[in-house]
Amino acid sequence: MIAMALGIVIILGITTLFADTSKSLDSVDRSGRLIENALFALELLASELSLAGYWGGASYPVDAETQIFVAGEVPSSVPSGLSWDVATEVPAACLGTGRIISGTADNAKAELAFAMEYPLFSALGSSLNSEVAAGICGVGAIAPASSNSDYFVIRRAGSCATGAPPKPAVNRCRPLGDYYHLQANGCYSENLGLSGGELKLLKVNNANVASQLSYTGFDCSTMAPVYRLVSRIYYVDNDDTMTRLYLDNSGGALGFQTETLVEGVELLRFEWFIDRSGDGQYDFVSRSPSASDWSKIIGVKIWTVVRSSVAEPGYIDDAVYSIAGEPWAVPTDKSSYRRVIQSRMVDITNMGGSG
After folding, report:
1. Are 231 and 115 in contact (CB under 8 A)?
2. ω into residue 75 within 30 of 0, thus cis?
3. Rounded to whole angstroms, what are the CA distances from 237 to 40, 187, 333?
4. C-alpha–C-alpha distance, residues 128 and 124, integer Å
5. How confident is the model over 282-340, as pLDDT tens digits?
6. DSSP 73-142
7. Which sign does the torsion angle of CA 21, 26, 27, 28 carry?
8. How far apart are CA 202 and CA 182, in angstroms?
9. How far apart are the first and last CA of the chain?
10. Torsion (CA) 5, 8, 10, 13 in degrees, nearest 10
11. Which of 61, 3, 27, 19 shows the shortest CA–CA distance to 308?
């Protein structure tokens, strides 16, 4: 009897130790996955924003009317109605689908050309939802954006330069896919009427890229590199999922495709650092810059709130946090979830300094 009692005590002790160890390991695993998600989300946004204003061989800023619509291209002259007033207006987020501008030989190209004048801007998710509801953005279903979070649009040249003929298997660039690419002229030639800095923005494929994108580099003989035009929108949807919309072809139709990135992202906010004087130092910080200030952005502070995917029994987070200088209260129905709040500064070296 004594031996049996001692055995039961030992078994109970081992069982309790095993349960406590399993609980601890589960907690460590949840914390690890939470931190991993939070770091991945922040790193992804930072790497994307650092490329804002990058146009391959073309300098920033881009002027669509003087650089892209040159003699011999369509349209040869740009109707005044196609040009945005950079002092008072920001173009739509979903430019490039051909559903906003009309009356040109290539409506999508006309939209993308002027979108290049605004390589970066941000607003609340509610403004993106209005474009989605109007059917401007895509060819498929797009989850609505959270009205409490910011979204941002980035347009730039792809980081992979190809040539003619393209060899994606060698240079690892995406196949052309009958999509819009750009090429900057590096050649100054009076005989050819080239002053350098002109841009070609055309939809090309493997068969016609060499004839359509024929600009050369500084030596006026070597073909200039060709870059895929990237247009992406990052936002948080109503299910707390960070989502990316990217402009692409799907079955021959041009529209924004949806890509799910990180689950559990409750909030996304930005503080933009603006250099109005053009001296390379920021003059002030704003959550919502004016239309004319978007060309003068030199940095951004990213704020993210990422929560665990699993509620923790007995845990309550009812705090009010200060994020980007504004209070943010934990949603009452998500108070049993642990969360990580992070921020990071990112230099945007390709933009700003335009005074």
Report:
1. yes
2. yes
3. 18, 46, 17
4. 7
5. 999 999 999 889 989 999 999 999 999 888 888 899 999 999 999 999 999 999 999 99
6. SSSSS--GGG---TTT----TTTTSSSS--SSS-HHHHHHHHHTT--EEEEEHHHHHHHHHTT-S-SS--
7. positive
8. 7
9. 90
10. -130
11. 27
> How far, in Å, CA of 215 to CA of 187, rounded?
8
Q: Is the model's pTM score more than 0.90?
A: no
Q: Which residues share a beta bridge with 105?
A: none
Which amino acid, 341? I
What rounded mean pLDDT belongs to the chain? 84
Copy the structure tokens of residue 175: 């196949």
Q: Which residue has the tokens 């605004």?
A: 118
Q: Are 136 and 97 in contact (CB under 8 A)?
A: yes
Which amino acid would we find at residue 2? I
Q: Are 341 and 322 in contact (CB under 8 A)?
A: no
Pull the structure tokens for residue 88. Answer: 């008072």
Q: What is the dihedral of CA 274, 235, 291, 62, to 10 degrees?
A: 80
> Tokens standing for 111?
């939209």
Under 8 Å between Cβ of 309 and 291: no
Q: Which residue has the tokens 């007033």?
A: 85
Residues 6+ apart with CB under 8 A from 192: none
Q: How far apart are CA 314 and CA 278, in angstroms?
A: 53
> pLDDT per residue over 60-84, tens digit each?
888 777 777 655 444 444 445 556 6
pLDDT in tens, 97-114: 888 877 777 888 888 988
